[in-house]
């Protein structure tokens, strides 16, 4: 049995913390005064006894590190050991330090006991925080699972680390089936190999919004969807993966297909009275075979209206063929319309059918009909009256079953007066005239059009959340010589140049920024506000003041509808 020298004993006794000196068999060799006081023992009484019979720690028999310290020669600290009632149930940290002889053999172990009340308090606080964290995690998981969209996350190896209930319902996979698998093995989207939004986000450290794609579910069904992604970071701020959102757009695609196949004016945005009257007229005339003449300034949507007539007519299964009469020289236009035979002119190395043949059984749209020559007008008149024609350079008379819709941005009455347009052709074309008003004559439709174009461009990646009141005032007061086409270009300009999440006046094209805004009350503007307020109220009444269907009918987002309701005191 080793013993302490006088100097070592003095140092041992001066330790402020309780200490035992133990031999390799855990027998007590010495007890300092602090330990004697703590355990209410004397050194003479406990010398030679096993330390556990004196300390009575709860873990002495189950997880004591003494043997490991003797065997390895490395010290060790055990935290939070409960003391027996003899020391009032105090919490102690026990530190074991091996003592070696000259040959390096462990001949004794110094056992120091530190007050662990601070550690106990910190541990309790940590456990409370962990409990709160578990509650928050469970709450967050519940919130995520309540979202209809599919939400998931991946690590840096593109392996799935979470999978919401919405994702389960959309794909047919359970979370247990997919965790740890590569995301592209599960979703099999149309962009996995070419334009994966997750890979783009990880590479560029930027989010992706509403990337159009199609996923393949467990049953190998194709589901059209919008994909969004953003970065995930750990507690140190380092990128540790991505979160992805899948929004099912099957219903939207089905509705669009139905609208396309069954008719509608889905490409037109407008709630003004004049546009409503045009839609009513077109619905009536589309069901007939009569010729239609659409008049209107450039950019008002004449071709879109012609398509709407075609797809609402009995000819919707046939071709819709268009010709811009102003874009070709007279000889080329004649060949384009009626076709030509081989050798009819230099360069005619083979026969070619014309647009009247290609449109057989469908609709032929003659845009800018006012720019045709009198000679060509005579041939068009014959086709409209007799439904027959000959190819350029040909002698065979061909029959055609085509409905003609013509359009012009010129005043045909003035052209007739000046001798530049045939009056008989005019009356043959103008069986049912439709005049598309310029945008400046239906300013109440401008906010709806702006909202439509913002949503259209946000489909590339959501950047714009709202339009400022000053910008909207500029848009409403501008005269729009280019009409709806110019408005679309202006919104795209703002979308591209904006450095904030809103369309502001400074992001509009210069010509629109500089347009004067009337400072005096504008009766038409007041009428417009009243009209829009009335439209909002009517839509809300029809849907029992449910904002989602009302917003859908008006072509607005729910956020925009809510803002307008507050603007007009409808909240």
How many strand segments? 21
What does the main sheet amount to? 5 strands, antiparallel
Task: Count every helix, treating DSSP H or I runs of 4 or more residues as helices.
Answer: 25
CATH topology group of the largest domain: Rossmann fold
Quaternary form = single chain
Low-pLDDT residue spans: 259-264, 518-530
Counting structural domains, the number is 4
* CATH architectural label of the largest domain: 3-Layer(aba) Sandwich
CATH superfamily heading of the largest domain: P-loop containing nucleotide triphosphate hydrolases
**What spatial form do the alpha-carbon principal axes imply?**
elongated
**Main sheet strand line-up:** 2-1-5-4-3
Percent helix among the residues? 40-55%
Beta content comes to 15-25%
The radius of gyration is 42 Å
CATH class wording of the largest domain: Alpha Beta
Structural class: alpha/beta
Task: Throw out a few tags for this protein.
5-stranded antiparallel beta sheet, alpha/beta, 571 residues, 42% helix, Beta-Lactamase, elongated, Rossmann fold
In short:
The chain is α/β, with parallel strands linked by helices.
């Amino acid at each position: 049995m080793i013993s302490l020298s006088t100097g070592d004993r003095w140092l041992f006794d001066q330790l402020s913390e309780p200490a035992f000196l133990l031999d390799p068999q855990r027998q007590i060799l010495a007890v300092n005064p602090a330990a004697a006081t703590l355990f209410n023992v004397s050194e003479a009484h406990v010398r030679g006894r096993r330390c556990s019979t004196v300390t009575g720690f709860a873990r002495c028999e189950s997880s004591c590190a003494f043997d490991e310290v003797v065997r390895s020669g490395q010290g060790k600290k055990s935290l939070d050991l409960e003391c027996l009632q003899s020391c009032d149930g105090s919490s102690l940290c026990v530190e074991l330090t091996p003592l070696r002889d000259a040959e390096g053999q462990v001949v004794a172990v110094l056992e120091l006991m530190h007050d662990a009340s601070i550690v106990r308090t910190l541990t309790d606080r940590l456990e409370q925080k962990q409990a709160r964290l578990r509650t928050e995690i469970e709450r967050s998981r519940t919130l995520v699972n309540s979202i209809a969209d599919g939400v998931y996350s991946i690590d840096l190896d593109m392996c799935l680390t979470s999978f919401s209930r919405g994702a389960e319902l959309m794909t047919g996979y359970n979370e247990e089936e997919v965790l740890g698998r590569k995301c592209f093995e599960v979703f099999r989207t149309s962009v996995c190999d070419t334009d994966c939004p997750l890979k783009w986000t990880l590479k560029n450290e930027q989010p992706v919004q509403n990337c159009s794609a199609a996923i393949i579910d467990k049953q190998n069904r194709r589901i059209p969807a919008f994909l969004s992604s953003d970065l995930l970071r750990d507690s140190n701020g380092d990128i540790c993966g991505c979160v992805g959102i899948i929004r099912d757009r099957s219903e939207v695609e089905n509705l669009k297909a139905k609208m396309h196949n069954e008719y509608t004016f889905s490409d037109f945005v407008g709630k003004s009275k004049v546009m409503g009257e045009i839609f009513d007229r077109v619905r009536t005339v589309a069901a007939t075979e009569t010729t239609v003449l659409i008049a209107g300034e450039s950019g008002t949507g004449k071709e879109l209206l012609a398509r709407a007539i075609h797809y609402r007519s009995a000819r919707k299964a046939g071709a819709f063929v268009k010709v811009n009469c102003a874009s070709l020289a007279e000889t080329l236009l004649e060949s384009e319309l009626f076709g030509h035979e081989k050798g009819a002119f230099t360069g005619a190395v083979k026969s070619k059918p014309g647009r009247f043949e290609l449109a057989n059984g469908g609709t032929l749209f003659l845009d800018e009909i006012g720019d045709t020559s009198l000679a060509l007008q005579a041939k068009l008149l014959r086709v409209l009256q007799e439904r027959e024609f000959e190819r350029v350079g040909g002698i065979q008379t061909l029959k055609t079953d085509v409905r003609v819709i013509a359009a012009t941005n010129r005043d045909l009455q003035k052209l007739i007066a000046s001798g530049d347009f045939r009056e008989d052709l005019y009356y043959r074309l103008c069986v049912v005239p439709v005049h598309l008003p310029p945008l400046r004559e239906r300013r109440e439709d401008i906010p709806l059009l702006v909202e439509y174009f913002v949503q259209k461009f946000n489909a590339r990646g959501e950047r714009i959340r709202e339009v400022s009141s000053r910008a909207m005032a500029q848009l409403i007061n501008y005269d729009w010589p280019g009409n709806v086409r110019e408005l679309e270009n202006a919104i795209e300009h703002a979308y591209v140049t904006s450095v904030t999440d809103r369309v502001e006046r400074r992001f509009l094209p210069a010509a629109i920024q500089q347009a004067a805004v009337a400072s005096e009350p504008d009766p038409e503007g007041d009428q417009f506000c009243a009209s829009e307020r009335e439209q909002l109220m009517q839509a809300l009444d029809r849907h029992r003041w449910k904002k989602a269907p009302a917003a859908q009918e008006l072509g607005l987002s729910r956020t925009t509808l809510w803002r307008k309701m507050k603007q007009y005191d409808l909240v």
